[in-house]
Design brief:
Blueprint lengths: L8 H13 L6 H23 L13 H43 L1
Organism: Candidatus Erwinia dacicola
Keywords: Membrane, Transmembrane, Transmembrane helix
Protein name: Methyl-accepting chemotaxis II Tar domain protein
Length: 107
Amino acid sequence: MIQLGEGEVEYHFSIFVLLSALLAYRDYRPLSMGAATAAVHHALFNYLQENDLYGIVCFTHPGFHMVLLHAVFVMVQTAILILIAQRMAADARAASEAAQRALLQRY
């Protein structure tokens, strides 16, 4: 999508949406891997764009400063999502334990 949007910043929002979708796993590992994948993608595609290789367009104004700026936002969002995922996992464990106790008390 970023390529099709010719590097417009609005198309980079898809990274944030897709990272948030990884909350479904309630685990820090998919979130960390998603953030790492986005970072590698941006660094590599910025390099390809700056060197005019393969017709890649990642940023409207390529430069390592743009990679760093995007990385900061992705890191902050990932940190927040990891905290949310940990709380979601704890809530799921507590609900499971409560359901098991309720089931045991029935019999």
